[in-house]
Design goal:
Helices cover about 0% and strands about 45% of the residues. The chain is built from no helices and eleven strands. The protein starts with a strand and ends with a strand.
C-alpha cells in the first residue's frame, strides 16, 4: 500500500527555519509529480511547491519564493521542504502529496491521490 509519512513540524519564532520530511513507501517518488500543500485555519488549502518527475524542475507559490526549497532524495525515497525566514502567515498544517496517475507536474489538488497525514507548523513570538 502506498503511504506518505510526514515529520518535522513544530513551533518556531519569526525568522526561524524548519525542514519538513515526507518518507514514501509502496512507490517511488521519482516517478511521479510530488508537492507540498498547506491549509491555515479558515482558509482554503493552497499549493506551496511542486517538482516535476519529467525534468526535475521546481515550482513555488509567490508567497514562498526565495524562502522555501523543495527537494527529493531518490536513495531515501523521501521528499523535503526547507523553510527559511518563516513568517506568522506561514502558520498552517502542511501536507505532502504525490500524483501516481499523472506524468510531469501538477498543481491540481484533485490529481494528487496520495497524501501525508499533515504536520503543524506554527510561527509565533
Amino acid at each position: 500500500q502506498a503511504q506518505l509519512v510526514e515529520s518535522g513540524g513544530g513551533l518556531v519564532q519569526p525568522g526561524g527555519s524548519l525542514r519538513l520530511s515526507c518518507a514514501a513507501s509502496g512507490f517511488r517518488l521519482e516517478f511521479y509529480p510530488i508537492g507540498w500543500f498547506r491549509q491555515a485555519p479558515g482558509k482554503e488549502r493552497e499549493g506551496v511547491s511542486f517538482i516535476s518527475n519529467s525534468d526535475g524542475y521546481t515550482y513555488y507559490a509567490d508567497e514562498v519564493k526565495g524562502r522555501f526549497t523543495i527537494s527529493r532524495d531518490n536513495a531515501k525515497n523521501t521528499m523535503y521542504l526547507q523553510m527559511n525566514s518563516l513568517k506568522p502567515e506561514d502558520t498552517a498544517v502542511y501536507y505532502c502529496a504525490a500524483a501516481t496517475e499523472v506524468w510531469g507536474v501538477s498543481w491540481r489538488e484533485d490529481e494528487y491521490n496520495h497524501w501525508g497525514q499533515g504536520t503543524q507548523v506554527t510561527v509565533s513570538s
